[in-house]
Amino acid sequence: MTRFKRHVFVCLNERPEGHPKGCCLRKGSEEVRATLNAELKKKGLAGIVRGNKSGCLDACEYGVSMVIYPEGVWYGGVKKEDIPEIVDRTIIHGEVVQRLLINDSRYKPSALQFAKLNIPPADLLKK
């Protein structure tokens, strides 16, 4: 069994002001990642799901961009307010949040539903 069941990579790449591809860092990716890690901890998932900072994911024009593995779900335009929904619907229940999907066929997930996290309910903290 692997240590983490899912990895979430949040782009923290920094590009110069005015770069045509944009810059996830300038769009608030550090705050998104911090909110993600706080939500994972709040839900008791910190040792099960890893919130990683990433260099360029080559999707900055869609930023803040993130990808969830092993499923390969790519989200763009993510805001800190989206994190509770991503954690609950995608990370825990295996449901893709379609409004956050990057609208580009290169980032299309293979499925819109995948396996829920297989963790005992006692491991999740009560709300």
What does the model show?
This protein has 127 residues and is of the alpha+beta class. The radius of gyration is 14 Å and the shape is globular. The model has no long low-confidence stretch (mean pLDDT 88).
Radius of gyration: 14 Å
Could you name the CATH homologous superfamily? Glutaredoxin
* CATH hierarchy class name: Alpha Beta
**What's the β-strand tally?**
4
Q: Would you identify the CATH architecture?
A: 3-Layer(aba) Sandwich
Shape: globular
Query: Tally the helices: what do you get?
Result: 2
Q: Strand fraction band?
A: 5-15%
Largest sheet properties: 4 strands, mixed
Helical proportion, percent range = 10-25%
The CATH topology comes to Glutaredoxin
**What is the end-to-end distance?**
28 Å
List low-pLDDT spans.
Answer: none
